[in-house]
Amino acid sequence: MALAVGIRGLTRSLLRPWVRVPGPARGRTEPAAGGGDGVRCFGSPRVLVEPDPAAGFAVMKMRNPPVNSLSLEFLTELLISLEKLESDKAFHAIILTSDCPGIFSAGLDLMEMCGRDPTHYAEYWKAVQELWLRFYLSHLVVISAINGVNAAGGCLLALSCDYRVLADNPKYAMGLNETLLGIIAPFWFKDTLVNTVGHRTAERALQLGLLFPPAEALQVGMVDKVVPEDQVLSAARSELAQWLAIPGHARQLTKSLMRKPTADRLLKERDADIQNFVRFISRDAIQKALRVYLEKLKQKKT
Ligand SMILES: CCCCC/C=C\C/C=C\CCC/C=C/C(=O)SCCNC(=O)CCNC(=O)[C@H](O)C(C)(C)COP(=O)(O)OP(=O)(O)OC[C@H]1O[C@@H](n2cnc3c(N)ncnc32)[C@H](O)[C@@H]1OP(=O)(O)O
Question: Which reaction(s) does its UniProt entry say it catalyses (predicted)?
């Protein structure tokens, strides 16, 4: 099985990043995220970046409709956006949010994990690992402005941020609900949750596949703040000020000190983790469970 799939090679073949974005932002100057100083939005088909270099941050908007499921292409574009901002000294922070109304992310793309071959599963899982590692260890301050429902892999992405603001809408539940699909949150998903909410809450949440509505998410510490829906972005921006006031090197080293042991667990056994995933997801029983779940999602409409 080819495990040595290079995400960078993939990005080169799949994308031409940093094209001016199609859709709403094309051909006009969007107000910058914080200052409206005429800085142009940029991005890729599925990720819109609204930079505010004067204020030192950018808003990264996920727009992979209908549900921001984390397909291989989408993961790749998110990584490219992150890399681009990390390598530009003008940026010290990112606000991660969604451009899809009512949905932050439906998590990993089930179509990437269902009915494909082992090589594809390995490539996909490597990209999922990479996204988590890069967001979790980013030297930038990353704040998520969660403006919709947020399941499993999407929740992991938010948990990888430094701070989480959630819109106060009872429909916007979030959690690692893998067991509801008959699958398992891998150890690094679990570790990220444990680091956020503590062992007992994580154990219960993971076994039961709990999706927490805003008040409960706040109560267990899965999010840091719940605000009215129309204030999610402004609350994230206000919070940023506190983080950006700290000397950058001190904050970054502290973040690394706190997070490196968790990331190292995966880094030490990345290939084994990929092989475990491929073996697990290729099982007939797991494939059947995913097909049934997808079917249920479709039937919900009828
Ligand atoms: C012992 C050894 C152990 C080894 C272990 C090793 C590894 C571990 C193994 C596996 C780990 C996998 C980890 C997985 C993580 C995940 O993220 S799995 C994804 C979990 N996500 C969900 O459960 C959310 C599912 N979606 C929904 O609940 C809803 O779609 C919604 C987000 C609430 C939005 O609802 P609504 O607005 O009503 O939209 P629809 O349901 O109608 O959906 C629109 C279309 O989108 C499709 N879709 C939804 N979610 C996904 C998805 N995650 N992936 C792909 N596609 C998705 C949905 O089917 C609709 O499609 P159609 O329009 O019908 O074609």
Answer: (3Z)-dodecenoyl-CoA = (2E)-dodecenoyl-CoA; (3Z)-octenoyl-CoA = (2E)-octenoyl-CoA; (3Z)-decenoyl-CoA = (2E)-decenoyl-CoA; (3Z)-hexenoyl-CoA = (2E)-hexenoyl-CoA
* Pocket of ligand 1, beta carbon within 6 A: 66-67, 69, 103, 106-111, 149, 151-153, 177-178, 181, 183-184, 186, 276-277, 280-281, 294, 297-298, 300-301
Using the mean position of ligand 1's atoms as its centre, give its distance from the Cα of residue 281 in Å. Answer: 15
Question: What's the DSSP call for residue 163?
Answer: E
Are 123 and 5 in contact by the 8 Å Cβ rule? The answer is yes
CA–centroid distance, 254 to ligand 1, in Å, is: 34
With a CB cutoff of 8 Å and minimum separation 6, the contacts of 64 are 46, 70, 71, 74, 100
| CB of 96 closer than 8 Å to CB of 145 | yes
Put simply, whether the predicted model's pTM sits higher than 0.95 gets the answer: no
Among 69, 75, 281, 297, the mutation site with the greatest number of ligand 1 atoms within 8 A of its Cβ is 297
How many Å apart are CA 271 and CA 292, to the nearest integer?
A: 29
Would you please indicate which residues are annotated as catalytic (active-site) residues?
108, 153, 177-178
Q: How much distance in Å is there from the Cα of 69 to the middle of ligand 1?
A: 7
Instruction: List the domain boundaries for the chain.
Output: 42-301
Q: Are 61 and 99 in contact (CB under 8 A)?
A: yes
Output the tens digit of pLDDT for each of the chain's 302 residues.
333 334 444 443 333 333 343 443 322 233 334 444 556 788 899 999 999 999 999 999 999 999 999 999 999 999 999 999 999 999 999 999 999 999 999 999 999 999 999 999 999 999 999 999 999 999 999 999 999 999 999 999 999 999 999 999 999 999 999 999 999 999 999 999 999 999 999 999 999 999 999 999 999 999 999 999 999 999 999 999 999 999 999 999 999 999 999 999 999 999 999 999 999 999 999 999 999 999 999 998 76
Spacing, Cα 53 to ligand 1 middle (Å)? 35
